[in-house]
Amino acid sequence: MSRKPSDDNQNTLSRRNFMGAVVTAGAGAAAGGLILPESARAEVLFPKDRSEFGAGGAANPGGPYRSENDLYDCEVEGTLPKDLDGTWFRVGPDPQYPKPAKYEHDIMFDGEGHIGAFRIKDGHVDFRSRYARTQRWKAQHAARRSLFGMYRNPTTDDPSVNGLSRGTANTQIFFHHGKLLAMKEDSPPVAMNPVTLETTDDYYTFNGGLLGLTHTAHPKRDSETGEYIAFGYEAKGLATPDVFVFSADKTGHVNWHAWIKVPYASMIHDFAVTQKHVVFYVCPLATNMSLINGTLPQFNGPGPHFAWDSTLPTWFGVMRRGGDGKDLRWFKGPGYMCTHVMGCWSDGDKVTVDMDGGESNQFPFFPQLHEKFDPMKGAGHVMRFTVDLKNKRQTTYNIEKMYPDVVGALSRQDDRYHTVPYRYGFLLSSDPADGSRWAMFDHSKRSVNFFGLGRDASLAEMTFVPRKKGAAEADGYLIGVASYHKEGGRSDVVLVDTQHLDAGPVATIHLPYRLAPQIHGFWVDGGDLPG
Ligand SMILES: [Fe+2]
């Protein structure tokens, strides 16, 4: 919940206001004595304590980035495969402006989406990064200050932005029907040019086919037809239990949709799509208007949209693809929290979904309604969920912890296997002795291999890159960012052969600076890119 500024904060604020006035005055002088309107006199100075900064600064390795960059022909150690042709995109929350003091403890997820693109071809790589020009970014850019209050809480916004999209486009990017879509799950996607990173549509609705107000950050591509399948939760407004689910053909034309309701409004960060079914996992990171309005007695003011309510069960909902949603069937389970789908498939009426998750809340930055946060219970493992729709009396789902000794989050797979049986999965893992590692699972053998660079390097989520068109499942490379604490967070991008994780990187792209924070990444084959 929002916290009252302490006396220390107020003292600090006074000092920062003074500094901000100096900065503003300096900018005015530099602009030839331009007199700024009162609304533009806000400070542009981020808190010194990056871990406390509420607009993205807590993201590893911390601090806002804010610099849009172009770097032609990056330095490469090792050898980029000559036949590797494509662009690796990454995105994360990068605060555009500091928030007012009363919101500076807001969570990192509320930074503006900053997209990075590594264009790899002929053994060379060029880097470009740009903010998504969301409606929010443009309004704040014009005003030279933060206008949107707390994470997913429009009751805290400046009145001047009423009616604008709050979307930050900071969570994941996806390429389909020639469009690079940058996504945040509280709003429609933003469309961008995949080469220039120019924003081409700040409110993309699939030519009006997206009927809900929201769109997930984790759409899927049908492994056989190439269709795009997505959904949006809270699709009829804040804290509503309504979900809009749809598919679009290769041209982006919406060719199926359905409206459903979930048992209660909560964070539905990802979903599972098989050849036959769509699966939603509803967990107790819940929301309601009392929380958003700040009328819950245990909190002081408006909340950051979600709170963990351990009294709620989880629900595993399965519906038929292509139907009207009336067949949706809910299976009940304990209060787990799962965020990302590793892989899934349908075998007749039996549905299997693998997700990373823990036995309680995994996001300590959201408040707990009933007990203290327990990091042990929140530790993530690869969990296998199964239901058999043929059994009409089954009311619960089955859970298996697949690899009890491996802890991690942000599970991925070879994206060509989104909707069909799969064998290999990936996880950003952590180990007390070895630090962050990329884990590669072979489910057929129940075995796991790791890649890591030791405790001095912090790895972000990886993306799988096929070795070539038609390569076997998971035959290729893992690509992702390594950041070095002892170098002020300076970043490399490493490329590792999935057949030889133990051999270290095939190539290391050295950046001369720290990269912007990242949540997810996405690979686009060069043959699919324009130009
Ligand atoms: Fe995600």
Describe the structure.
- By secondary structure, the chain is mainly beta.
- It has 2 domains: 1-45; 46-528, 6 Propeller (Neuraminidase).
- The protein is built from 4 helices and 33 strands.
- The strands form 8 sheets. Strands 2, 28, 29, 30, 31 and 32 form a 6-stranded antiparallel sheet that branches.
- It is globular.
- It starts with 6 loop residues before the first helix and ends in a 6-residue tail after the last strand.
- Mean pLDDT is 89; it is low at 1-41 and 55-61.
- Fe (ii) ion binds at residues 171-172, 217-218, 269, 340, 520.
Draw up the topology in text.
Elements: H1 7-30, E1 70-71, E2 75-78, E3 86-94, E4 112-121, E5 124-131, H2 135-143, E6 172-176, E7 179-183, E8 190-192, E9 199-201, E10 220-221, E11 228-233, E12 242-248, E13 254-261, E14 272-273, E15 277-282, E16 285-286, H3 289-293, E17 307-308, E18 314-320, E19 329-333, E20 337-347, E21 350-358, H4 375-378, E22 381-388, E23 398-401, E24 408-413, E25 424-431, E26 435-442, E27 447-452, E28 457-459, E29 463-466, E30 476-484, E31 490-497, E32 507-510, E33 520-525
Antiparallel strand pairs: 1-5, 2-32, 3-4, 3-33, 4-5, 6-7, 7-8, 8-9, 10-11, 11-12, 12-13, 14-15, 15-18, 16-17, 18-19, 20-21, 21-22, 22-23, 24-25, 25-26, 26-27, 28-30, 29-30, 30-31, 31-32
The chain binds fe (ii) ion.
Fe (ii) ion binds near residues 171, 217, 269, 340 and 520.
